[in-house]
Design brief:
single chain; 249 residues; alpha+beta; 12 helices; 4 strands
Length: 249
């Protein structure tokens, strides 16, 4: 255990922030920390958009939920998978890269790069005493988001990240048991063992909710997952991604 590991282990989503903006220095350090993340073959296929315009923040908050903490925070970052600059690279080098840029592999590279950068940004922010919350809700209405943020082709807004000074601390949600996510040498598809682990985890999660809500809520993780996965949401995504010129091959 050390300070970095302790900070990682102490992560929790913060959805209530003080009315206090981040400084330009804090923003720069967070972005530079994001840039220090690993990137596939040095492609650096992501862009981060900082939202300071209160009108745009309010619009994004409505499109994402509505979610008030998308509007009320110290700073709002939008993380995008970005192969648009590589279209420009192709022009500069007088090459036709249209087929590889439309491939599923390059789309995966861009989304992975963006996710790695975002997690670095989150850890940097938390190390400063700030709180963060990822905002997947921006994918509810990506057509509107792309218009609002002037997003070009080959770019997909993936998620936002609200950052700020926590109004208070939320509780940590217990994660899956390590043996359920870490396998050695090969995947261990022992169904009975999986079920036993998940039943034990259901008890943990149900207890967490009972304690947090004074027994008003006591649902399990598996019931949550069934409810979430069976709900048809963002079914337009494949068409939208292809419309942006990605994941077509």
């Amino acid at each position: 255990m050390n300070e970095i590991i302790a900070k990682i282990m102490d992560h929790r989503s913060i959805r209530s922030f003080e009315d206090r903006l981040l400084t330009s220095e804090q923003i720069e350090v967070i972005v530079q920390s994001a840039q220090a993340a690993s990137t596939s073959s040095f492609v650096q296929a992501y862009t981060i958009i900082g939202i300071t315009d209160p009108v745009k923040k309010a619009a994004l908050a409505e499109l994402a939920g509505p979610q008030s903490y998308v509007e009320n925070n110290g700073h709002l970052f939008m993380f995008c998978a970005d192969l648009h600059r590589h279209e420009i690279v192709a022009e500069m080098e007088e090459m036709d890269l249209s087929e590889p840029l439309e491939s599923t592999e390059k789309f995966m590279v861009a989304t992975i790069d963006a996710a790695l950068a975002a997690q670095n940004a989150a850890l940097a922010a938390e190390s400063m005493g700030l709180g963060i919350c990822y905002i997947g809700g921006i994918r509810n209405h990506l057509l509107e988001v792309t218009k609002l943020l002037n997003i070009p082709s080959k770019v997909i807004p993936l998620f936002g990240m609200a950052v700020g000074y926590p109004m208070g601390q939320s509780e940590k949600k217990p994660r899956l048991p390590i043996e359920n996510v870490y396998h050695e040498n090969e995947y261990q598809p022992d169904k009975e063992k999986f079920i036993a682990q998940l039943e034990k985890y259901n008890d943990t999660i149900s207890g967490y909710y009972r304690k947090r809500t004074n027994a008003v809520r006591k649902d399990t993780w598996t019931s949550q997952m069934v409810g979430m996965i069976t709900k048809k949401s963002r079914m337009y995504m494949k068409d939208f991604v292809e419309r942006q010129g990605l994941n077509k091959r």
